[in-house]
Amino acid sequence: MPESILPLAAVLTSAVAVVLIVASYRRPNIREGWSVLAALTQFGIVLSMLPGVLDGTVYEWSLQRSLGVEFLAGIDFVLRADLLGLLFALLASFLWIFTSFYATGYMRGLDEHDQTRFFAAFAASLSSAVGIAFAGNLVTIFVFYELLSLVTYPLVAHDGDREARIAGRKYIAYTFFGGGVILLAGTVMVYWLTSQTGTATTAFESGGIGALAEGAATDPTAAQITFYLLITGFAVKAAVMPLHSWLADAMVAPTPVSGLLHAVAVVKSGAFGIARVILEVYGPETIRDLPLSVPGIGEVGLNVPLAILAAFTLTTASIIALRKDHLKRRLAYSTTAQLSYIVLGLSMLHPYAILGALFHIPAHAFAKLTLFFCAGSIHVETHTDYINDMAGIGKRMPLTMSAFTVGAAGMAGMPLIAGFVSKFYMLLGAGYVGGEYWLFAAALLLSGVLNIAYFWPVVYTAFFESEDRHDAKPLLEFPAGGIRQFAGDELATDGGKRDEETELNSDDDSGAGVDSEADYEYAVDRYPSDADVPGGPGGSPAEGDANSSVKTGPETAGTGHDHGHAVAHDDQHHGGPPAGGWTRHSPLTESTWLMLGPIVVIATGAVVLGVIPGHAAFLDLATEIVTSVFDANSLEQLRGPLSAALEVSTQ
Amino acid sequence: MSNVDFLLPLLVAVPMLLSTVPIVLGLRFDRTGWSVAALTTTALVAATTALANAVYATGPVSHKLGGWNPAYGIELVLDEFSALIAVLVAVTAAGVLAYTRVGGPRGNTFYSGYLLLTGGLLGISVTGDVFNLFVFLEIVGLATYAMIASGDGPESAVAALKYLILGTVGASMYLIGVGLIFMATGTLNMGVLAEVLPAAVERDPTLVRAGFAFIFVGFSMKVAQWPLHTWQPDAYQHAPDGVTPVIAAVVSTAYAYAFGRLLYSVFGPEFLTSTPYLTELVVTVGCVSVVAGSVLAVIQTDVKRMFAFSSVSQFGLIVAAYGLVTESAFVGATIHLVGHAVIKAGLFAAAGVIAISYDARTVDEYAGLADEHPLVAGMMALLLISLIGIPPSAGFVGKWYIALGAVEAQLWPVAIVVLFSTLMTLAYSARLLEKMYFTPATPLEAPHAPESVATDGGEDGGDTETAAGADAANDGAAGTRGGTETAALDAITANGDRNTVSYGMLALVVAAALLAISLGFAGGFLAGLLDPSFITEVFN
Amino acid sequence: MIELELEILASHYAYSLLFVLLGIGLYMMIANENLVKKLIGVNLFQSAIFLFFIAMAYVDGRAPIIEGKSHSVGEIASPLPQVIVLTAIVVGIALTAVGLALIIRIYAEYGTLREDTLREVRADE
Fold first, then answer.
1. How many domains does chain C have?
2. Rg (CA), chain A
3. Which ipTM did the prediction report?
4. In this structure, is residue B294 part of a structural domain?
5. Which B positions 178-197 lie with beta carbon below 8 A of chain C?
6. pLDDT block averages, 10 residues each, chain C of length 125
7. Which CATH number does the domain housing residue C35 bear?
8. Among A234, A223, A245, A23, which residue's Cα sits nearest to residue A138?
9. How far is B411 from chain A (nearest CA, A)?
10. How far apart are CA A249 and CA A266, in angstroms?
């Protein structure tokens, strides 16, 4: 294991960039230059490790060995670039390059305030994300996990208005609950469990920590609790239900943040953490050896409750996404669903499912980042946030909407796009295991259908409808039985918000669209006929949950409706087609190339991953990870049921 | 290496003797206090560092006062545990002077009190005698009461009196405990007590247990554990801004250290674990304080008061860790003592800077601070982050060991409280962070600020008249009062950017913040200081 | 049992009385609204403790004047409690002085010594 400064260098690159960005706050061009430069350097460093890592080298940097500083008694601060870490670091640093261009275009296009803070926090987030990727033990990953929560908070609360602050509060409460409380508890427990049987350790080992397996054998209950503590700690960031609701609220952040952080770096760090726990802390074998005995059912694998939760999340989140009219929120719920693919794949424990899950990390990242970039681009150019206002927008932004279509197809798992490959392997894994696991396969397939159901309307609206005449959106957006045009009296019974007749429509719009709290007015208010969506507040139980938790938060109650605020906000959210309809633009002039460029590149990336996955590094990495975890020579050895796959490892 | 032990009595004697110098010189010169204090504390830093080096190199250093037999004479001891606290006290005392030079109370008598306090605190850290400890507790108490009372306005006198009464009762409770222990054993020396106590427990367990009970109640009061914490918020809030950092950072810390010293060096782990309900009681008091302190901190509007309740909660964590009686928990408590002291010193100093320059004392008034004072706001944010325990920071290291100790002791409820304390600390810290960074300074608040200033200013005028003649210490206070008053007046006209903030103040805040972060990497180092020698001695 | 208690009372009556004094001091400190009386309560409380030490050190023997030669245990009273009490009295006086100084200041500011009035005055501000 060579001593190498490279992992540290990768982490520090963006940390240094933070300082430089803050220092050059007076010169925006130089400031963004640092961003791009740091992104390129970081990617370069990570890439330079790729050949070595694929050959089996592990680059490791340890605080104790290099500086002689002991981080905590018996615990070293280790950064090591192994296969799994490189997968995540490569992804994050690669996507950061394009995001930093895009963010420049986005922030300037909107003339946002506090751009220095934004770019600094963004670079710091990347530093933490790469730190998570390269963390060599649970304590180190915890350090970066907490730092990531911390530095992304300014990005979520960036707008500084009430909505953003509440979202920020919720974000920080959820993430610190997951990290500072649950994950720390799990880490301490691992340290304690391993100290029971030998030297206390939290260092990752491919296939599971040996001492932990011994500790688990002596105290299975504690080991099971520890497993769920660790998983829950990471699941908060991976937005697994019921800990998902921060993600949709965090969409108040500027779109580059929603894109890179809340679809890639932050949420994937949760999924990545789960991967570390399942593959390198416990290991599939230990997890299999620790069955829960559920009264009435008998012994159930430790992984099964997690898999059930993930399957539930991916189905439910897809259904909720159907009802969201706000594009970014729809994407957020789609993210929630897609992350659960990863969690589901990992928790099925079968090598093929794990392979699919690992490959889904980059696959989803590329596709979802495309989608978010498109949403942001639309926001910057036309100030449109609601799908209802997007009728015919394909004329205005042909290239963007084409990229959106590609991304959406990837989400749905269409062949030739990245999402297909990962889903294929996951289905394969479920099939090999057989038995009840067919249920999970069914959930995957159902979710694919739902994906089409909620993305197709966007594409359809954009390309096949015109702004003056467009149909009601299919499926759940409208109640079964058609549209009720005369909202007045009938609504009183279910809506109940009748104190102000004139605002009735707007209230109900927001209820169906985003949030039943009518704290701010949306652009749709100006076009009530466009969005006449009568539906009671709170479309689904989960949504109701989210709303009520927002309401009960401190300082939210009683402050009431801030009118000056709402007016200012209205301006920002002014959207929909201009008076004369969308003007037709060529793909070359629809937006600034600072934004179009990244969109095109990332969308292309999604296609490349789908068409030639074998040549794009990520699949190789994922395959290597799986074979090393199961100690096999090749993937072919691992075909067949799970027990057979685990047998391979014992040979 | 016994040639450094002559420094031990000097640590206590020099500051106490020199504390008379500012008064004497004050007869001729107006402002010599600061220089005397600065020289003394610098020398103390050097002396404690030298002693600490000797301790960590060769083991504990001890000195018998007057050459008496320790069984009835007084012995001063510096070991691995107390060396850490002694260095902390000396460094903090020297550091906070950087603040008080321009910002704090300035009279010569103030610095007399300051040196007396420093001497007392060092006395607490080095004494090896339980009654001597009482004397130092009272010396520290006296100096603290006087320094709190030197604050602006009459409120500080009321707060000081409240503290005086409760503090005296606390110390007296401790004295009763000492008496009972003395009855049982016939000695006051900590080292000797540790040897003879087990036999005494066998002979008459009730006597020793009663003694412990009184000592515990006394220290719960001194360390401000719920429900005996009531003096603390008033005292911290009304103390002058230059005094709070010292009090918050080292006074409570020294008390908590003394409590830990008694628990582990005098009573010993065996007594703690073998006495029924003892650890449960200590742990419960600690845990309840953690929760109550955090909850009360969340509902405060005054920033200094909020930090005071935060201290209740953080010391609850330390007391709970003491009660766990495991090696990790003890290491955690020690590290948290040091870390919390650094963090709180920085936070109170930052609050003082903000109060001077921005005239903001309540959480709401902190809105938009980050734009006005990016440096102070940034450092305050760093310190708050350390307080929450986000790694790498001092707060995290302490919490890690305490949590580990709770898990090792398999006291799951304690582990849950310790872990959830992160979230509870977050609740009030995030409130402040959000105000500073994400809440624009709304014009609505502008009419409020000058109004409150006007009433304050009015009282201050009367205050100055009456107080100036009575106490020379108040002269200094009156001087600052005038300063803040004009600052406040400027605040009305020129949006509060009067430059009374010195580089010394900023340097203190910055140094505390950086130290809080860098201590986050010193977890292994600090544990290593205690671990092989001291811990083994105590726990085996 | 009663006999035993009586015996304890007979032989340790000083302690019982001292704890009564302790209680009176504590009660006075808590219940009395007058600040000066509160401080007197604190003083009573402390005095009780001093007496407790004195009572504890009492032996039927000589005063602790050691003249070079060694004495057996119990022959002379331990000198330590006396030393302790002397020191503690000094400390107590210093505390009382500081407390009274604070009370004078409070009286000068608010014109009252009663805590309830003080609370009202402060609440009005």
1. 1
2. 24
3. 0.87
4. no
5. 179, 182-183, 186, 188
6. 69 81 90 89 90 77 59 63 87 90 88 83 72
7. 1.10.287.3510
8. A234
9. 12
10. 14
